[in-house]
C-alpha cells in the first residue's frame, strides 16, 4: 500500500511540474506575441505572485534600443504614481502613531510644526482635511507642466510659497479630480513629524524590511550611478499612427525634475522588487505570521473614500456590460484605487513619467498580485488599455482558474471585438499632436508676442525671435510657435510644437506634441503688444501676463526725475 501511495505522489508531482511547464510555455508565447503586436513598446517587465510565491518574473525587449541592451528582471523602471501607495502608507503609519488624524485640517496639522500653509478659496482653506488631500477631492488645478520645472525649489518652499497659489478647477469636494502635488505636500508632513526626510523614512519602513534592494528614488545618488541598460531608457512617442508611433529617447536627467515630488511619483524599482512589495501587502492584510507591514495601516489606506467609476481610455464611464469581465473601480483611498474584479476586492494603481508606464493590481482575499511596466508608447494611456489592463485581466483569470476569455488570439486586438468602434476609447489619442505641415509665424506678426510672461506658479514663459522664427521657452520646455488660428472673432491661438523637456527630443516638426497659447485680439493697431496669453496643455489653461521691462520703468523714472530737476532749476 505504501508503495502505491508513493507512486501516486510521484505521479502527481510530475503532472504538476508538467502543467507548470506548460503554463510557462504559454506565458512565454503570450508575452512574445504582445511585444510583437506592440512595436512601439521598447521594454516590458511583469511579475505575478500567488500565495506568497513569485509565479512569474520576466522582462522582454530592449532596455536601450540605441545600444542594443536587453531588458532583464534587474532592469529598473520608474513606477510613477504607484509611489503614492507608499506615501499613503507612511501617512497612515503616522496616523496610527497619533501624530494627526485623517479628518484633521491640513492647515492645523502644519501649524503643529509652526508651518503656515494655506490653500486658495476661503471654504477650501478652512475645511480641507488630510483625507481631502490624499483622495483627490480638493478641486485644485493639476499644474502638471511643473514636472518640467528646472527651478531649484525645496519641498518646504514648495509647500509654503507655491501651493497657496494653486487655482481652483472644480469646487471643493464636488468631484474626483486628480492632483499630484498634494502628495508632495503630504510627503512634507511625513518629514515634519518623522524627523527625517521622506525618502529615508520610506527606505527604513518599507524598502529595507522587504529587502527591496533595487528600489530607490530619482533624487538618490544610486539612481545617478545607474549605467546604460541598468535603468530602462525612457522614450517618448511622436505623432502619426497611434498603433506604431516612432520612439525617441529622453535623457535620464528628465527624471530628476521629479525629485522634490518623490511622494507623488519618484520611485524607481524592478519587477522583482515589486513582487516583494505585493507579497508583503497581502501577507499583512491576510495576517500572515511574520508580516513586515502593518495590517491596521493597510486596511485604513485601502478603503474607497472618493467615488470613481469604471472608465474607458478616454475617460468615458462604462454604463453597460461591455466585456466578459473587467475592473470596476469603486473609489479612491489614500494612494490606492479600490474596486472589484469578478466580485473580489482589488487594490490597484497606475503610474506614468517620461516614457515609463506602470500598473499594479492585488486581490488580497485570493492572495494574487500582478505588476507590469513598459517603456515606450503609451500614447494618452492607450497602452494602459491595449496592453497592460488586458495583461492583468489575463493573468488574474489564469491565477483564479477562471475560463479564459482573453487569449493569444484576441489579446492583441483588445478592446475589439467587444468594442468595435475603437474611437470610443482612442479618439483622445489624436488630441495634442499636429500631423500637418505648419507655417511659422511671420517676424512681423511675431513682434506683437515677443517678451516675457509671468504666472505666479510657473517659471517665466518666454517668446523670442530666433532665426526669423518665433520660439517658446518655459523652464525646461521649449518649442517652435507656428500658425495663428482664429478660434472665435476675438479669441485666437498660437500652436506651440514642443520639445519637452529641453533637448530631450529631436522629433520631426510634424510629429511633436503641441500646446496652445490663447490670446484676445481686440486691438485695432497691429503694432500693439499682446499683454496676456493663456497656456493650454491637456485639460487646463493657465494665464500669463506680460512682464514690462524693469529697465524701461527705471528709464522712465530717470527721465521724469530729470524733468523735475530741470523745472526746479528753471524756477530758481
Strand order of the largest sheet: 3-2-1-14-13-12-11-10-9
Strand content range: 15-25%
Unreliable sequence segments = 423-437, 500-511, 550-565
Mean pLDDT: 83
- Largest sheet properties: 9 strands, antiparallel
Query: What's the N-to-C terminus distance?
Result: 131 Å
How many strand elements?
22
Structural class: alpha+beta
Helix content: 25-40%
Which key terms come to mind for this protein?
globular; 22 strands; 572 residues; alpha+beta
Describe the structure.
- With 572 residues, this protein is α+β, with helices and mostly antiparallel strands.
- Helices cover 31% and strands 23% of the residues.
- The protein has helices at residues 2-37, 83-96, 106-111, 122-127, 130-134, 155-162, 181-194, 198-207, 221-224, 262-265, 271-285, 295-301, 382-400, 423-426, 443-446, 550-571; strands at 41-50, 53-64, 69-70, 77-78, 216-217, 235-237, 247-249, 267-269, 306-307, 328-332, 337-341, 344-352, 356-363, 368-376, 451-454, 461-466, 469-474, 477-486, 491-499, 514-520, 532-537, 540-546.
- The strands form four sheets. Strands 3-2-1-14-13-12-11-10-9 form a nine-stranded antiparallel β-sheet, with helices on both faces. Strands 15-16-17-18-19-20-21-22 form an eight-stranded antiparallel barrel.
- The longest helix is centred in the N-terminal third of the chain and has 36 residues, at 2-37.
- The protein is globular.
- Mean pLDDT is 83; it is low at 423-437, 500-511 and 550-565.
Write the topology of this structure.
Blueprint: H1 2-37, E1 41-50, E2 53-64, E3 69-70, E4 77-78, H2 83-96, H3 106-111, H4 122-127, H5 130-134, H6 155-162, H7 181-194, H8 198-207, E5 216-217, H9 221-224, E6 235-237, E7 247-249, H10 262-265, E8 267-269, H11 271-285, H12 295-301, E9 306-307, E10 328-332, E11 337-341, E12 344-352, E13 356-363, E14 368-376, H13 382-400, H14 423-426, H15 443-446, E15 451-454, E16 461-466, E17 469-474, E18 477-486, E19 491-499, E20 514-520, E21 532-537, E22 540-546, H16 550-571
Antiparallel strand pairs: 1-2, 1-14, 2-3, 4-8, 5-8, 6-7, 9-10, 10-11, 11-12, 12-13, 13-14, 15-16, 15-22, 16-17, 17-18, 18-19, 19-20, 20-21, 21-22
Amino acid at each position: 500500500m505504501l508503495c502505491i501511495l508513493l507512486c501516486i505522489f510521484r505521479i502527481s508531482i510530475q503532472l504538476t511540474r508538467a502543467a507548470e511547464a506548460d503554463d510557462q510555455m504559454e506565458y512565454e508565447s503570450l508575452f512574445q506575441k504582445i511585444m510583437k503586436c506592440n512595436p512601439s513598446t521598447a521594454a516590458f517587465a511583469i511579475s505575478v505572485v500567488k500565495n506568497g510565491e513569485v509565479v512569474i518574473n520576466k522582462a522582454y525587449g530592449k532596455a536601450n534600443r540605441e545600444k542594443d541592451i536587453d531588458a532583464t528582471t534587474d532592469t529598473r523602471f520608474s513606477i510613477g504614481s504607484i509611489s503614492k501607495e507608499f506615501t499613503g502608507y507612511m501617512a497612515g503609519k503616522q496616523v496610527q502613531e497619533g501624530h494627526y488624524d485623517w479628518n484633521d485640517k491640513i492647515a492645523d496639522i502644519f501649524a503643529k510644526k509652526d508651518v503656515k500653509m494655506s490653500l486658495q478659496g476661503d471654504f477650501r482653506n478652512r475645511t480641507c482635511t488630510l483625507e481631502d488631500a490624499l483622495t483627490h477631492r480638493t478641486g485644485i488645478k493639476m499644474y502638471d507642466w511643473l514636472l518640467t520645472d528646472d527651478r531649484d525649489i525645496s519641498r518646504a518652499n514648495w509647500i509654503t510659497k507655491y501651493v497657496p497659489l494653486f487655482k481652483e478647477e472644480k469646487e471643493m469636494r464636488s468631484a474626483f479630480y486628480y492632483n499630484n502635488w498634494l502628495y508632495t505636500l503630504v510627503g512634507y508632513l511625513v518629514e515634519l513629524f518623522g524627523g527625517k526626510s521622506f525618502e529615508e523614512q520610506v527606505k527604513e519602513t518599507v524598502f529595507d524590511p522587504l529587502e527591496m534592494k533595487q528600489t530607490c528614488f530619482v533624487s538618490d545618488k544610486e539612481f545617478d550611478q545607474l549605467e546604460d541598460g541598468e535603468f530602462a531608457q525612457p522614450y517618448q512617442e511622436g505623432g502619426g499612427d497611434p498603433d506604431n508611433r516612432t520612439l525617441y529617447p529622453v535623457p535620464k536627467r528628465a527624471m530628476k525634475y521629479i525629485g522634490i515630488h518623490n511622494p507623488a511619483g519618484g520611485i524607481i524599482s524592478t519587477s522583482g522588487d515589486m513582487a516583494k512589495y505585493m507579497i508583503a501587502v497581502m501577507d499583512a492584510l491576510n495576517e500572515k505570521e511574520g508580516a513586515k507591514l502593518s495590517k491596521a495601516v493597510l486596511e485604513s489606506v485601502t478603503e474607497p473614500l472618493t467615488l470613481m467609476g469604471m472608465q474607458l481610455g478616454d475617460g468615458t464611464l462604462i454604463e453597460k456590460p461591455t466585456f466578459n469581465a473587467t475592473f470596476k473601480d469603486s473609489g479612491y483611498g489614500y494612494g490606492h484605487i479600490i474596486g472589484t474584479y469578478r466580485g473580489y476586492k482589488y487594490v490597484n494603481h497606475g503610474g506614468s513619467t517620461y516614457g515609463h508606464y506602470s500598473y499594479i493590481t492585488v486581490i488580497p482575499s485570493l492572495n494574487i498580485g500582478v505588476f507590469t511596466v513598459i517603456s515606450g508608447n503609451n500614447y494618452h494611456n492607450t497602452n494602459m488599455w491595449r496592453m497592460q489592463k488586458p495583461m492583468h485581466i489575463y493573468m488574474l483569470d489564469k491565477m483564479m482558474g477562471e475560463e479564459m476569455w482573453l487569449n493569444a488570439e484576441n489579446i492583441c486586438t483588445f478592446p475589439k471585438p467587444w468594442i468595435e468602434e475603437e474611437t470610443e476609447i482612442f479618439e483622445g489619442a489624436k488630441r495634442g499632436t499636429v500631423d500637418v505641415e505648419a507655417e511659422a509665424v511671420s517676424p512681423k506678426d511675431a513682434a506683437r508676442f515677443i517678451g516675457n510672461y509671468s504666472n505666479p506658479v510657473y517659471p517665466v514663459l518666454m517668446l523670442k525671435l530666433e532665426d526669423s522664427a518665433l520660439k517658446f521657452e518655459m523652464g525646461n520646455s521649449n518649442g517652435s510657435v507656428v500658425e495663428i488660428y482664429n478660434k472665435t472673432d476675438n479669441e485666437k491661438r498660437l500652436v506651440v510644437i514642443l520639445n519637452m523637456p529641453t533637448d530631450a527630443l529631436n522629433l520631426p516638426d510634424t510629429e511633436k506634441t503641441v500646446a496652445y497659447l490663447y490670446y484676445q485680439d481686440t486691438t485695432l493697431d497691429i503694432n500693439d503688444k499682446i499683454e496676456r496669453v493663456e497656456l493650454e496643455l491637456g485639460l487646463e489653461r493657465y494665464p500669463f501676463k506680460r512682464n514690462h521691462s524693469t529697465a524701461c520703468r527705471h528709464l522712465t523714472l530717470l527721465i521724469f526725475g530729470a524733468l523735475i530737476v530741470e523745472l526746479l532749476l528753471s524756477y530758481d
